[in-house]
Amino acid sequence: MDGSSVKIGCDCDQLAARQTLLSHTDAVQVALAQVQPITQFETVDLAAAQGRIAAQSINADEAMPSFDNSAMDGFALRLGDLAGRCCLPVAGTVAAGDAPRDLPPGDALRIYTGAPLPRGADAVVMIEACVDKGHKVHIETPPAPGANIRRAGSDQGAGQMLLAAGTRIAPHHVGLLAANGVRGITVTRRPRVALFSTGDEVTDGDCAPGHIKDANRPMLSALLAQDGAEVHDLGILPDDAAATEAAFRALGGAYDLIVTTGAVSMGGRDHIRAALCAAGGQIEAWRVALKPGKPVMFGSLNGAAVTGLPGNPMAVHVGYHMFLRPQLARLTGAAPQPFAEMPARADFDWQRKPGRAEVFPVCLIRHDADGLPVLRRLGQGVSATLLPLAQADGMAIVAADCASVAPGDMLHWHPFNTFGGCA
Ligand SMILES: Nc1nc2c(c(=O)[nH]1)N[C@H]1C(S)=C(S)[C@@H](COP(=O)(O)OP(=O)(O)OC[C@H]3O[C@@H](n4cnc5c(N)ncnc54)[C@H](O)[C@@H]3O)O[C@H]1N2
Ligand code: MOO
């Protein structure tokens, strides 16, 4: 990190005069430094735990499976009874849910998957390897000792860690915990996020001439909710210094994170930075060598981190993934994930002006012989529209010093959770 990221208080002129842009990797560190892990926890039903962050590790009370059982539909038998014989009498049937029983000497028992292994049995032969003749079974090839038996404790031992603290709970965790009889789980309180748009031109209603509809608040609300935040939508601030300062002052200490969009660049009506300072906040850094998203600002107010994203919607989307997601992760005690780490290859030619790292929408067109995704660049680097992003399978990034990309060059990308590639 260079000297440009040191604490600079609220001297906005000094900030504006600084020519050096923060690298996007340093900016992530500054963003992270504004938040501390939440130390309040709550217990939620397992059914409501998906997406929450486990506050404590959970260990298994007991071994699994808790009893020896059959992994297949077939016949349970004693291998010694097969010595010199290929046919055994069938003494009955044991199904999943039945109580454990004894295997009578010299007999087989028909058994279904998940049924408790009869006491005395030492192998299960699959139904496909037998001829079931009703009261007897013909076994062509004797099974190996222990075949098709799931032994008690073979999946997990008692005390086995099922879930580590800091894990984001996914549906497969819910299933594992349910199988282990866990009903409630202690999770970190959801991060409380205050969300503002800014701009006299921005509206939620009908557009007068020169006005536009708010894209940023609905998109950020959706992204924040998806990542488990408790979103407090505080509406649209006018381009007015006093109103912006008053809005910051009114926030008190109720939030972990305050997110604004717009009014953070150089214009005469860009009031976010000055208003934050006037309201008693701190600006830690401003302006990042990132396209889109250059005028992003990081600060704090009353114990909350304040992240001021630029107004252009694509810059908001990029800023969310690059800075806000790591901030949310640290707040909840989860490990912040680096942005766009997945390797891929380009299928396009692109000459660009070096200086800022650039994030752009991409679609997945195929996989190469090494199995790497091959990506096509979408859009024309315009940050005012989300349309190319809506047609994309993810976002790729090139480094600030990158002057050109040629087909076959390595890229890094952040895939969305979409299925299938672009047409
Ligand atoms: N002289 C300079 N001008 C600009 C610079 C610069 O470095 N020097 N940076 C440019 C970059 S990069 C960006 S990005 C924008 C960001 O400016 P602001 O953060 O002050 O944002 P606004 O001016 O308020 O808005 C920018 C753009 O986005 C539209 N917008 C705003 N809010 C919303 C919303 N909620 N939904 C949809 N669209 C929104 C707004 O109408 C503007 O068109 O500054 C450049 N200028
Ligand atoms: O953030 Mo701006 O959108 O780089 O053009």
Automatic annotation (TrEMBL):
Catalyzes the insertion of molybdate into adenylated molybdopterin with the concomitant release of AMP. Coiled coil: none annotated. This is Molybdopterin molybdenumtransferase. One of its GO terms (molecular function) is metal ion binding. It comes from the Bacteria. Residues 194-330 form the MoaB/Mog domain. NCBIfam families: Glp_gephyrin, molyb_syn. InterPro entries: MoaB/Mog-like_dom_sf (IPR036425), MoaB/Mog_dom (IPR001453), MoCF_biosynth_CS (IPR008284), MoeA-like (IPR038987), MoeA_C_domain_IV (IPR005111), MoeA_C_domain_IV_sf (IPR036688), MoeA_linker/N (IPR005110), MoeA_linker/N_sf (IPR036135). Its EC number is 2.10.1.1. Keywords: Magnesium, Metal-binding, Molybdenum, Molybdenum cofactor biosynthesis, Transferase. Its cofactor is Mg(2+). The keyword Magnesium applies. It comes from Roseovarius nanhaiticus. Belongs to the MoeA family. It catalyses: adenylyl-molybdopterin + molybdate = Mo-molybdopterin + AMP + H(+). CDD domains: MoeA (cd00887). Pathway: Cofactor biosynthesis; molybdopterin biosynthesis. It is an enzyme of class 2 (transferase). One of its GO terms (biological process) is Mo-molybdopterin cofactor biosynthetic process. One of its GO terms (cellular component) is cytosol.
